[in-house]
Hints:
Layout: H1 6-24, E1 33-34, H2 50-65, E2 69-73, E3 80-85, H3 90-101, H4 106-118, H5 125-138, H6 147-162, E4 167-168, H7 169-177, H8 182-186, H9 188-199, E5 218-219, E6 224-228, E7 231-235, E8 238-241, E9 249-252, H10 253-256, E10 261-264, E11 268-272, H11 275-280, E12 286-290, H12 297-309, E13 314-318, H13 323-336, E14 341-342, H14 347-351, H15 364-373, H16 380-389, H17 395-408
Parallel strand pairs: 4-5, 11-12, 11-13, 13-14
Antiparallel strand pairs: 1-3, 2-3, 6-9, 6-12, 7-8, 7-10
Helix pairs in contact: 1-2, 4-5, 5-6, 6-7, 13-15
Amino acid sequence: xxxxxxxxxxxxxxxxxxxxxxxxxxxxxxxxxxxxxxxxxxxxxxxxxxxxxxxxxxxxxxxxxxxxxxxxxxxxxxxxxxxxxxxxxxxxxxxxxxxxxxxxxxxxxxxxxxxxxxxxxxxxxxxxxxxxxxxxxxxxxxxxxxxxxxxxxxxxxxxxxxxxxxxxxxxxxxxxxxxxxxxxxxxxxxxxxxxxxxxxxxxxxxxxxxxxxxxxxxxxxxxxxxxxxxxxxxxxxxxxxxxxxxxxxxxxxxxxxxxxxxxxxxxxxxxxxxxxxxxxxxxxxxxxxxxxxxxxxxxxxxxxxxxxxxxxxxxxxxxxxxxxxxxxxxxxxxxxxxxxxxxxxxxxxxxxxxxxxxxxxxxxxxxxxxxxxxxxxxxxxxxxxxxxxxxxxxxxxxxxxxxxxxxxxxxxxxxxxx
Length: 418
């Protein structure tokens, strides 16, 4: 049973060619032509499906009855050779799309867009710039613009520019669209890209795309800082001591901003990339912070405060021995200006026979991202080895054996720099 609507496909092809000619703005006597094989690839073949060919023929004949196309047949045959568009009747094709397929004709779309943009062009920076972007797209008839998408984007951009309170993304979505997940399910990335393009703020390596929303007081979700070990956190007159919490604690982002003082009662602070390794490692003389990947704004603020209050301790980072792990370390240093030493992320671990069955080959993407890191002396030795041996390693197996070693040493971390 034939499921294709060849009439709609034929109309789409005719209008696409017509709009492309308009966009080129050239004067020509050549007619717009569609060959049947553009609709059904095997139309001219001896083994073509008779029902498919008949459906193509019927679609062309229906449009011929409306006087929007002319058909040329092969000599001595009922097969169609070419279908010509009657350009002076092209408006009828728009009407067919609207009435039969509920598709708004391009002319109507442009009129709706003009009205929508006219009502917003006097807005603030984001809205005004976005309106100009859409105007430029409208100049090319080949561009198919979704009016509802533009309308929804304008709603959020307008809201962001006027927003004056700290909100979560889902709250903003409720206020703008009436649904908590509508924003993230439909146009969150597009809005972030629009903002970055307008403000010329590209996403740096490892940064979340939606981090740009912080400029407009929007947070994706509640951010938390996970710490473990012997910390002393002070808020005004209140002091929290964490050493009795064996599994560590979490501090919400709203509370991070009000911290007066942070004391690390250990010679080392270690950031740990993955949660399993964060939970696995427990060392009496090391305070740990779960990073979870690239450092967030709140983690950066927290670590800067730690450095300011604890200038004499040692800072280390423990992550995956792969390209992403080293980019995370580089991003951490760039954002905090703290010289985190690499911990258990070297050639020694990649050579360790205990981990041999866990080594994985590099992907093509790994190799592409590795090149620029090789220029950094911090990573040159280990990355050269990784590239030569075609290996990488996740940190969870390393932390597993590290904890076994630390347990034998009664929980003391004996490998920090002298």
